Amino acid sequence: MQWQDLESFIADTSYTKAQIARLVKSGEIEVKNEEGMLYLRHRESLPSIATQMEVTPSKDPSLMMQEVLQKVLDIHSKFALAKDEMIASLKSENEFLKSTILAMQEAYMQDKQMLDFLRQEVQASKQELEEMKKKYKLMWDRVRQSQ
Fold first, then answer.
1. SS3 label, residue 34
2. Taking the complete model, does pTM exceed 0.70, yes or no?
3. Which of 9, 104, 136, 143 is deepest in the core (most CB within 10 A)?
4. Distance from C-alpha of 103 to C-alpha of 96, rounded to nearest angstrom
5. pLDDT in tens, the chain (147 residues)
6. What's the chain look like in SS3?
7. Burial of 121 by CB count in 10 Å (0-12 exposed, 13-18 middle, 19+ buried)?
8. What do you get for the CA distance between the two ends of the chain, in Å?
């Protein structure tokens, strides 16, 4: 990976400055400052195949081909294992999110039932209050008529 100035790096990667700052802190992006200019590049996350393979001069091309194929198969198996781990991780996270959603829905339904109950109680209290006002008014009307 080549060093790029900040603006061209942002244009190439579509990262925001905040994302770049996080990636620099995590070590995924290397940064250097030369003459007041910031230069960035991605850190090599996977070593290249050429650096993994020890080049030994061999006169037998079939032996060299076998070594190359073995390295490719090793790399493929590593990727397959990483893929399986990622799938397992995502499934676990998915199950967690599903259970969280179900718990939230249950809490929502309980809250909704409680609100319905409280509305009914408020309505009943209002009706009782109106009845008490009518009785009180009727009682005072009778008291006034008797005087």
1. strand
2. no
3. 9
4. 11
5. 688 888 888 888 888 888 888 888 888 888 888 888 888 888 765 444 444 445 455 568 888 888 888 899 989 888 888 898 899 999 999 999 999 999 999 999 999 999 999 999 999 999 999 999 999 999 998 888 887
6. CCCEEHHHHHHHHCCCHHHHHHHHHHCCEEEEEECCEEEEEECCCCCCHHHHCCCCCCCCHHHHHHHHHHHHHHHHHHHHHHHHHHHHHHHHHHHHHHHHHHHHHHHHHHHHHHHHHHHHHHHHHHHHHHHHHHHHHHHHHHHHHHC
7. exposed
8. 105
